[in-house]
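Weekly structure sync, notes
Attendees: PL (lead), two postdocs, one rotation student
Agenda item 3: pending single-chain targets
PL asked that the sequence for the first pending target be pasted directly into the notes so everyone works from the same version. It is reproduced below exactly as submitted, 472 residues in total.
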Amino acid sequence: MGDLIRQPARRRFVLVVAALLVFTGLADRVTAADAGIPKNIIILFADGAAPVQWDFGRRSSELLRKQSFATTDVMFREGTLGLLSTQPHGPYVTDSAAAASAMSTGYKVVNGAVSITPDGKPQKTLMQAAKAAGKRIGLVTTATVYDATPAAFAVNARSRRDSQVLVDLLADLQPDVLMGGGAEYFLPASVAGGKRKDGRDVMAAFRAAGHDVVRDIDGLKAAKGNRLLGLFALEDMDFEIDRDPKQQPSTAEMAAAALRALSKDSPEGFVLLVENENTDTAGHANDAPALMRALWAFDDAVKVALEFQRRNPNTLLIVTGDHETGGFSPTYAQKDLSSLSGSNRFTADDEQFRMLERVSMSLGRLREHLGKKPDSEVLDPLLAKHFPGLRFDDDLRALLLGGKTVERNFTYVPQNLLGRMIARQTGFYWGTSGHTSEPVAVGAIGPGARLFHGFQDNTDFGRHLHRLVGSK
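Predicted structure, written out during the meeting:
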């Protein structure tokens, strides 16, 4: 009888032990995933992009390109998903230098500073830590290679505005791959397009250090070495909507070239940052059509990186941004101000996306054509050709021709006025021409990905990266 009574208890004990063993096994696997150390780290960085931009990219890509959007459909859906707060040291709203510095070093800095804390101390950047750990390093951007984000991930400076100083610091660091715009501060002022006042030819210095130095897409395709300097514009590279594919490479083409170069002779692996800055610049300009195409271009680079990660599973792949730009707000709105009734309302939908697709020039390029003193004789033919079906209301026209803005937080003139033109007829509105405090999303796949799960501060992002590269 006693044995009969004890049998159920024994069965329960066995079941509990088995459950504990299963749980322990799962816990061990989760811990291993958390603590996994990748050989390679690829960070794909869409400056100014937060969840609303990512979903805009997804919907527009599915509707207009008939293509999936890998950032949302793979990185966020299948990978680890997290959110980052973005505040700098001091104010509530960050600039790109402070945001990137926190994500690179794990320390808060003031707006405008490049990985130097308020006490004046330079903090070890991600690329400095990776190089010290024996890894190869690469920086790719559509901005100038010394712009806030690539600079903050690589070097230390008191101001993001010290372009020549930042180029000198990058030359000292010697990234294995460096690509983007900004050739003007690599060349002496005696050379066409050069701005350096010390007479130094930094391109020649990179070439002497063993880099292939390329200036256009043909040069990039021909490059075969394991070190690469690509400078494809004197200043920022063009928006995707304006880009000449025969001259400037796409974000995906630069990412692919960087991965080819960094993969060679890389026993300790590499760390690569690939930034599309045009997502941020489009937000400042309130340029929804340019933002849409910039997001597509960025996502094409994500697909390149995902294929590399599939073939090299010891690679951690991260997709994120540094802050939100523009207060992007797709919404419903009144067709005009004649009535506030529901019958006068429209909602941003498929037809409005198609209106964006028909636009064939960025608002920044339009501004260049208008010059410092815009007039209707230049404006109207450009609108008719590149912005078909969109009308420019009289109130906005008067402000543009007068060089005035519509509100205190819209300071990119005339782009913000033209952005308002698009918004009134599509429902793709904007809340500002500046940055906002919206948290940014992080998607991660590969060893160490689970470190980025949940809501964290942007300094946590930097600390995780230093841990993963073995920084001391």
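Discussion points:
- The domain at 38-327+434-468 is CATH 3.40.720.10 (Alkaline Phosphatase, subunit A).
- Residues 1-34 have pLDDT under 50 and may be disordered.
Action: rotation student to compare against the earlier draft before next sync.
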